[in-house]
Amino acid sequence: MAGLPLAFASPWILLALGLLPLIWWLLRLTPPLPQTEAFPPLKILARLIQREETPSQSPWWLTLIRLAMAALVIFAMAGPVFNPTATRLDGEGPVLITLDNGWASGSVFKDRRATAEALIREAGETNRTVMLYATAEPAEAGVPLDPQAALLKLESIEARPLMPDHAAFAKLISAATQRQSPGSMFFLSDGLQYPGTSELATALSTGASQQEIILAPASSIMAMAGVRNDPDALSGKLVRAAAGNSVAVELTAHDNKGLPIARQTVTLAPEATEAEFRFSEPVELRNQVVRVSLDQLGNAGGVQLLDDSFRRRLVGLVSGEAGDLSQPLLSPLYYISRALAPFSDLRESTSANISTAIPELLAQGVSAVVLADIGTIPAEAGDQLSSWIEKGGMLIRFAGPRMAAAPEDPLLPVELRRGDRNLDSALSWDTPKALAPFERTSPFFGIEAPRDVTIRRQVLALQDIDLEKKTWATLEDGTPLVTATKKGSGWIVLFHTGSEASWSNLPISGTFVEMLRRVVNQSRSNPLAAADASTTLPPLRLLNGSGELGAPGPEAKPLVLEEGKTASVSFDNPPGFYGTEDGFAALNLFRVGDTLKPLDRSLFSPAAVTSNYAADAAMDIKPWLLMAAALLLALDCLAVLWIAGLVRMRMPTRPISTAALFFAIIAGGAILPATPVHAQQNGSTLEGKPVEDFSATLATRIAYVVTGDAALDDVSRAGLTGLTRFLASRTALEDSEPAAIEISTDELSFYPLIYWPISLDAPIPDAATMARVDAFMKQGGSILFDTRDQIGGVMGGTSGSPEALRLQAILSSLDIPPLQPVPPDHVLTKSFYLLSSFPGRYAGGELWVESLPAQNEQGERPVRAGDGVSSIMITSNDMAAAWAVDTNDQPLFQTIPPDPAQREYAFRVGVNIMMYVLTGNYKADQVHIPALLERLGQ
Amino acid sequence: MATIGSIAERESSSATMARARARAALIPDLLIEARHVANNVHAGWHGRKKRGVGENFWQFRPYVEGESMASIDWRRSARDDYVYIRDREWQATHLVWIWIDESPSMLFKSDLTTVSKQSRAVVLGLALAELLARSGERIGLAGLTKPVVSRHAAERIGEALSLAGPQTEFPSPLSANGRSDIVLFSDFLEDPQVIETRLASLARSGVRGHLVQIVDPVEEVFPYAGRIEFSDPETGEKITTGSAASLRDSYSGLFRAHVSAVRKAANALGWSHTLHHTDKLASQALTSLHIHLSQDRGQR
């Protein structure tokens, strides 16, 4: 094989090629054996086949295939190697071998070691000593070794997941070469340039008569430079040392157990040295990723480890306000969600019912929950919340009108005064207050207290001995603005002002974003990022040279974190996880922004020869030959089958139809299981849904609560019937029959108004029912409570009557805003009829509604309206009895005092309430039309 | 690979007797309607539409002097002044010859069936004999036995068959001349011309023939593929073909042509021809044979 760069490991086997003619002769001699069949109608068959067909030899091409097969096997057995390695050592004196065994060697280190081993063996043949340095090992001075010892030392060297320390070895080598100058110098580089490479080049460039640098192609060296967890994706960058061919690499994201979560292929463009990658999986999945690796690379540079600090925190949001999407700027959650969105993932509950919303959020694994203006937390949800906080959850609460009105609450950091402090009201001497600078002990320390932020209203903490310690932020006058307390391993944080802009302008300032970020980051801290003092973390799982995570080896030492310093990779601290299973920190070889530089050849002396790794060029072609032989064998089998007629060339339809059937079965297997599942789902949605009475949705119906007291329920029904008829005759609203609802079971959301007479006999609804009522009110429904006790109340007031107490008991678990009697400028007085009082069967009682915001300087306006409909109305005038009519439209009850006009007014009250409930503040806007037209100049 | 066809052992008639009985039991009593019943004296059940020796009443006729007094029907004569004689209808048996081919080619049996052609032929022959015996016909094995009338004719034929050894020769023109039927069970794989001359020489003696051609399904379908050496069980002749599958279509065309040539030869003589496959039930062939035998072919 003179012309070809081909060598054989055992050339004598080639002698067997001489057997080929014998094989040829044997093959020609034995034709394939026919099948013998008895066949009586042979005479008929004989007419078809005129001459007797008995080929004594197999076809020439079959013989050729078999001969080629035999030749291939003989060649393969001879162990051919393409581009064999040549000897490369010359000169005299010690051989200096410097070997890069850093991260970039990784999977190919075996070849590097083989190259070094070949050199050392050659040195052994010529009895030369060897100076061996591996640049990623600890820098220790070495002495010239005899080749046997050098081989032993080489055995112990393996690829390290570290950066080679060229600078340290430069010093060692220059010291050693000064003592004894080497005859040959070999630098087995990994192809990359490191900070100390120029010093090393200088140290290596002295003296030796033979200098050789063995390089790996730089374009094949790749690393993953940092990973970020962005809001929408887990992204990062691949870098390579030099532009080269277009390469597609596969990235895999693994979870804590090493299971793959996501996989994607990234292509490096031909002239590019870097490429971005993005894992756009849902954040819950992304948060489980602890390792992103470049699969085929097989070295530590292609692995990025992620710890807690990479996780995006899930924050659950719950609000006490009705979910009014038409007025987002007034929603308590609007500014909070805008402020949190950049650095955390938000989960808003789909349910307005707090007692289902909170468990739903907790089940999603949120790390913080924001409650905006929630006054009363239902007991069960409260228990779940507090046990969740004990385990490390963070509860962030914002004050508001509901909280100001709420009774004591255990889930607050401090005890609150009832009511709120209004710094900007007509009766206040104060002016709105700004923030005081943040204390050093506060987590907000470092944020500059803005001067333009003013607090107009807030809730006040009761003075307490450790109030100071719990305070994170104060106003100028020292009143706490943010208080927090640790509960178990979690936190409760309270912002004493509202989360929307009506109480202060804090939520619309940039400071708010920064404060929330600090608070949420507090929720689960990361030891690497927030090292208070020096912390020591034991090695947990470390990367090895091939980029695999494993148990820490004996060299690994605990990672010492010092304040203000970032931990770095060293021989003692290889990249990996440090800490315990519960909380660990990731130490990475590459950071965001790192790049790779190919080795600069010009640093070395011009005398040095550059070559490639021999193992890269030498190719063992034995497996290819064997594979070709196997292919020929398969071909031969097919040919024999064809000759024997088993592969039916004449009848292609049968194999094809069989194949088609086979594929159809496979495809059917793939499709069939899916279809029944769909069917089941459809079936379950159809059958699983309870059959509702949809009549409630087809017309507007007023509902009344069934109390169980038959007489009272009759009055309610008759009263609402009377009101409905009145509405139909006087207004455009044509209701259908009133609906009787069981408050604990019936769906409430169809009804705009629920009339709820208070009966002493009726049981107090349980917590679940009241949670439903709460959700109904928050979603925009209104309830008219009627205590019917005006006549029996003491001194015309109703505060002490049994019905009023019963009402208080019912409402105690509801989140009720402050109430007030209908003021003269309330829209209820003008929504259809102009009314000044709200009589029912009795005339004296007040109608209570949610209190409106205080009247500002806009006092000229004829009517005020809140931003929604009052979800609760309370009267004591027994409205239903005044409205009640029999079938002949004759009133059932005499009014007290007996005045026909009062009944007419009672009906008008009903019409106004109904109009108010249905149109909201539209009427309030209507009365302003003259003023608006005037302003427009008409 | 196992071969498709094989040469079965010759099946003894005693073993097939039980199966033949079972087949025959399925067929109603065979009463051959033969127009030309042989003019013989043996009592049979075929009325000759004239007076003679028989069991059925034919006519009363006045007594003629010289007739035997024993033949006077006294009951009828007592009713008026004449003396009557009760005449009976002349009844005679029909003669049916059976011939079963037992040449080596008949011993062929393929994978697709459970019986060889010879076995099926013996079953059919004995079953037919059983049927005919039940109807009181005279049955004979062509070339082997004399015709017998016996309820146990089938047993006797079976016995004769097993004693005689394989019958390979086509029956020579029959000794009993004319006015009889012959049923030939064979695979009729010879040249159509040979078959034609043999049938013609048989027909010359006035016999009416029924051909039952027994065929193995393999012989018709030709399910062979690949390189196969075919051998003829009769002559031992061998033919090797490289790709048998390619011959399938043209072979089955030839085979159908052969069968129709045999049918044509039979029909030319006014004889019936029944093609029977060994993978079908024997009673199917027996039924169609029954139809052919009892049919008045309207000839002669």
Mean pLDDT of chain B: 78
Structural class from helices and strands of chain B? alpha/beta
* Order of adjacent strands in the largest pleated sheet of chain B: 7-5-8-9-12
Instruction: Please give the order of strands in the largest beta sheet of chain A.
Output: 16-15-17-18-25-24-23
- In quaternary terms, these chains amount to heterodimer
Q: Supply the helix-strand structural class of chain A.
A: alpha/beta
| Rg of Cα set of chain A | 44 Å
Radius of gyration of chain B: 24 Å
Tally of individual helices of chain B? 8
| Largest sheet features of chain B | 5 strands, parallel
Helix content of chain A: 25-40%
Total number of β-strand segments of chain B? 12
| Largest sheet geometry of chain A | 7 strands, mixed
Overall 3D shape of chain A: elongated
The total beta strand count of chain A reads: 40
Q: How many angstroms does the end-to-end distance of chain B come to? A: 55 Å
Task: Please describe the topology of this protein.
The complex is a heterodimer of chains A (938) and B (300).
Chain A: E1 6-8, H1 20-29, E2 35-38, H2 42-48, H3 60-77, E3 80-82, E4 95-99, H4 109-125, E5 130-134, H5 147-156, H6 166-179, E6 184-188, H7 197-204, E7 210-215, E8 222-229, E9 234-240, E10 247-254, E11 260-268, E12 274-279, H8 283-286, E13 291-294, E14 303-305, E15 313-319, H9 334-340, E16 344-348, H10 354-363, E17 368-372, H11 379-390, E18 394-399, H12 401-405, E19 416-422, E20 433-434, E21 454-455, E22 457-461, H13 467-470, E23 471-474, E24 480-487, E25 490-498, H14 510-522, E26 535-537, E27 539-543, E28 549-550, E29 559-561, E30 576-579, E31 584-587, E32 609-612, H15 614-617, E33 619-620, H16 622-643, H17 653-671, H18 674-688, H19 695-698, E34 703-705, H20 710-730, E35 739-741, E36 753-757, H21 767-778, E37 782-786, H22 802-811, E38 819-821, E39 848-850, E40 872-875, H23 879-883, H24 900-919, H25 922-926, H26 929-935
Parallel strand pairs in A: 4-5, 4-6, 6-7, 7-32, 15-16, 15-17, 17-18, 18-25, 34-35, 34-36, 36-37, 37-40
Antiparallel strand pairs in A: 1-3, 3-33, 8-9, 9-12, 10-11, 10-13, 13-14, 19-22, 20-21, 23-24, 24-25, 26-29, 27-28, 27-30, 30-31, 38-39, 39-40
Chain B: E1 5-7, H1 13-25, E2 46-51, E3 57-62, H2 74-77, E4 84-92, E5 95-100, E6 108-110, H3 117-134, E7 138-141, H4 153-164, E8 181-186, H5 192-203, E9 208-215, H6 217-221, E10 228-231, E11 238-241, H7 248-268, E12 272-277, H8 282-294
Helix pairs in contact in B: 1-3, 3-4, 3-8, 5-7
